[in-house]
Amino acid sequence: EFLDELNLQNTKMIISAIPELEANMILLDKAKSKNKKIITVLVAHTIEEANQLYDKGASYVIMPELLGGSQASLMLHKFGINMNKFLVEKKKHLKEINKLLPSYKPIIR
User: Fold this and answer.
1) Kindly report the CA angle at 55 between 13 and 31, in degrees rounded to 5?
2) Nearest to 28 by CA among 10, 55, 48
């Protein structure tokens, strides 16, 4: 019902962080039926899920587990074995975490 209320005909892009495949499949079907040109970026947690979403017409599928590994690899390439650079990145990350979960106070800062 919620999807029926959206103006998908004029929407240029949908980015879904919904972790369930079935919900993303429904969203993708509804979006593509209303607008063939809509860009859809969805989340999958397995290769099989990603392939199903691509087969249904997803523009791009985010796989958090792969992105995490890619991010760590980029950091290693950029920072080398410089501890200070990792600590600077750690502080930035903790700020982001605290914005999302203000009640969480990490022991190590």
Assistant:
1) 30
2) 55
Q: pLDDT digits over 4-55, tens only?
A: 777 788 899 999 999 899 999 999 999 999 999 999 999 999 999 999 999 9
Q: What is the pTM of this model?
A: 0.69
Half-sphere exposure of 66 (CA within 13 A, CB side): 9
Adjacency order of strands within the sheet including 60-62 = 13-15, 39-43, 60-62
CA dihedral 34, 35, 40, 45 (to 10 degrees): 30
Bridge partner residues of 61 (DSSP): 42
Q: Name every residue whose Cβ is closer than 8 Å to that of residue 15 and which is 6 or more positions away in sequence.
A: 41
How far apart CA 61 and CA 41 sit, in angstroms, is 6
